[in-house]
Amino acid sequence: MLPELYQLLSLYIEPISTVLTMLLIWFSPGAALFHRTLILRLKGAASMDVHSVMAMWQLGNCYLLLSLILTLVFRARKFIALVIADSDSIMWTFIGLPESLWCDLLWWNSMVHGNIMFVIMLLSGRLAWFAGIGHTKYAHRAQTVKEKPQCMH
């Protein structure tokens, strides 16, 4: 069983946040608003062509898939792929930002904060899990299994 903090973070908060993002893209407020808020607070409405709409809907599908993977993979306690995905998400979000905004957190919108700050929190939790903080490591647990006492004749 996972310790409470890891269980809360990985089995509930993260999957729910990815499902909510998918719902925001697919239904309300919709792909157009999600598209406009990806990077910065832009003034004026940005129009989307049919290709951009399709890309946003596919992104929503990716969030749904991610939610399923998070739920099923973490329950199986095999999540090295999620550490790689977290690092990749942080890196590409930074690359997508104008360099002048990398350290200007006040100009970031909720999407950028989510893709960087929230993912850093998730990555920290995964790295803490790998480091054995707050739980007994599985490999260590296997080594400490008591051997059968040998009978003395």
Helical run tally: 6
Alpha-carbon Rg, integer: 21 Å
Estimate percent helicity: 55-70%
The percent range for strand residues is under 5%
- Overall shape: it is globular
Low-confidence parts = 139-146
Largest sheet: none
Structural class: mainly alpha
The H-and-E topology, N to C, reads as: HHHHHH
By DSSP, the count of extended strands is 0
The chain-level mean pLDDT equals: 75
Helices and strands in order, then pairings?
Elements: H1 4-26, H2 31-36, H3 50-75, H4 80-96, H5 110-131, H6 138-143
Structural write-up:
There is one protein chain. This protein is an all-alpha fold. It has one domain (4-132). Helix content is 65%, strand content 0%. The protein contains 6 helices and no strands. The chain has helices at 4-26, 31-36, 50-75, 80-96, 110-131, 138-143. The chain is globular and about 50 Å long. The two termini are 41 Å apart. InterPro entries: DUF7704. The chain crosses the membrane at residues 12-34, 54-74, 79-95, 115-133. This is DUF7704 domain-containing protein.
